[in-house]
Amino acid sequence: MARKREIGICEHCGKEFGYYLVHNGFGDCAYAYCDRCPYSVYLSTLSNNPSNISLPIGGKIPEDVERFMKPCPCGGSFRSSALPRCPHCLSSISPVFAASYIEKNAANGWRWRQSWDDGYSIVIENLYVDEWWKGEESTSR
Asked: Rounded to whole angstroms, how far apart are CA atoms 3 and 21?
């Protein structure tokens, strides 16, 4: 999932971090963020998963799917309600504040919807895992 790395800035600590956006509908995946650190998780809607769980294409994982996920590499939990976090101070990143750098870095005047709940998610400092199911071999970055 490596993409062009853009630069964002935390509204809380003022430090810069690398990021890129993922259009989850084009990637046929669902996603969630860790409740403690900057990691995100991506689950393919096309591959087999435990108990053949139905996942929304392009959206956050449903709350009832959380129990099937392995803990985040940091020990936290991937939650449908979690927000992306700054890699320095671990504060939640506001999608409204993020619009200032996302739109600046976007091509052709594209406008951000200012929500972490639509078809786009954010990968911070390339910290993400794929197919992070309990009892399955998974990939960590």
From this structure: 8
Q: In whole angstroms, give the CA distance from residue 110 to residue 99.
A: 11
- In this structure, the chain runs to a length of 141
For residue 43, how many other CB atoms are within 10 A of its CB? 24
Q: Rounded to whole angstroms, how far apart are CA atoms 83 and 106?
A: 21
Residue by residue, DSSP assigns 39-107 as: -EEEEESSS--GGG----TTSBPPGGGGGGBPPPTTS--EETT---B-TTT-PBPPHHHHHHHHHHHSS
**Tens place of pLDDT per residue across the chain (141 aa):** 556 789 999 999 999 999 999 988 877 889 999 999 999 999 988 877 776 788 888 889 999 999 999 999 999 999 999 999 999 999 999 999 999 999 998 878 888 889 998 789 999 999 999 999 987 655 555
Q: Is the dihedral of CA 107, 125, 85, 45 positive or negative?
A: positive
Sheet containing strand 6-9, edge to edge, reads 6-9, 16-23, 120-124
Token pair 């998610």 in the structure block, residue: 121
Q: Which residue ranges make up each domain of the chain? A: 6-140
